[in-house]
Amino acid sequence: MEHNHDTESIGDKRLTAAIAVNVLLTVAQVIGGSISGSLSLIADALHNLSDAAALGIALFARKIGRKPPDKFKTFGYKRAEIIAALINLTTLIIIGLYLIYQAIWRFVEPEKIEGWIVVIVAGIALCVDVITATLTYTMSKKSMNIKAAFLHNVSDALASVGVLIAGTLILLYGWYWTDTLLTLMIAGYVLWQGFTMLPKTMHLLMEGTPDHLSIEEVIESMESVEGVENIHHVHIWQLDEHLNALEAHVVVNSNELSQIEEIKSALKKLLSDRFEIGHSTLEFEHPEQNICESYNRSC
């Protein structure tokens, strides 16, 4: 337990450092974009700001998620990270739409851009993005929110490379339109990322069945356990991104408590080992009981 606490403490420090460097980068990019007139630099700054906010929300959610279950939240607070993901993705989509609006307006009213400032600030941004990605890489393997933040930083690094290219083309050939085109590309990627992850987050919050599980297959496997005659009234959902849950009614062919306990242990082991369902609630019935109501039909 102490080792786990130390690991979490190190993770919090890495997140804090990543937030700090991204906030400083955002300020530098906004100043550089305003002075140079580069919309793509400001677009990248907004994306970096969203990354800093995402990391901040993820850090706050991690702290809440460690709270133990209580009488108000009997399953605990782990879903705080899923709520954080929903907030982050919604913000990301709004930023993407705003960037498209600004890029279209720039086509109407073009502005001169100082290429050298764009190149210098984008170079700094690339270094910061690599540092942030390095800080969050290990943590991203165990958390959906931090993995999303890690991927954001990788995409930021690629965007910074693109801004460097645009600034170079402006310096060499005066192609100012490349800045606007790059802004649209960054906005497109932001929207694609947001709309791809949003349904998964909503599915979890709506207590949907985990994507890798089939209710029919789970029922068939449970009914293959010796002593089980029927499985019905089945619900499968995710308590958080790592823990799956199930509740079901189990019709058994025995009234002996010891045999029912053996069946229950076998079912729980099956659910845990084969389907990664760590929390299961099973209600046992005997065939003589009237189970027609469970099927919502008359006998």
Kindly describe this structure:
The chain is mostly helical and 299 residues long. Helix content is 70%, strand content 10%. It contains nine helices and three strands, in the order αααααααββαβα. β1 and β2 form a beta hairpin. The N terminus and C terminus are likely disordered.
The largest sheet, given as strand count, sense and whether it forms a barrel, is: 3 strands, mixed
Let me know the number of strands. Answer: 3
Strand order of the largest sheet: 1-2-3
Helix content: 55-70%
Please mark out the parts with pLDDT under 50 across 5 or more consecutive residues, or reply none: 1-7, 290-299
The protein's oligomeric status is single chain
Q: How would you sum up the global shape?
A: elongated
State Rg: 26 Å
Strand content: 5-15%
Could you spell the SSE succession in H and E letters?
HHHHHHHEEHEH
What's the N-to-C terminus distance? 54 Å
How does the helix and strand content classify structurally? Answer: mainly alpha
Q: What's the pLDDT, averaged over the residues?
A: 78
SS field, number of helical segments: 9
Please write out the topology:
Blueprint: H1 2-36, H2 39-65, H3 80-108, H4 115-140, H5 144-173, H6 177-205, H7 215-223, E1 228-238, E2 244-252, H8 257-275, E3 277-285, H9 292-295
Parallel strand pairs: 2-3
Antiparallel strand pairs: 1-2
Helix pairs in contact: 1-2, 1-4, 2-3, 2-5, 2-6, 3-6, 4-5, 5-6
Summary of the model, kept short:
This protein has helices at about 1-35, 40-65, 80-110, 115-140, 145-175, 175-205, 215-225, 255-275, 290-295, and strands at about 230-240, 245-250, 275-285. With about 300 residues, it is mainly alpha-helical.
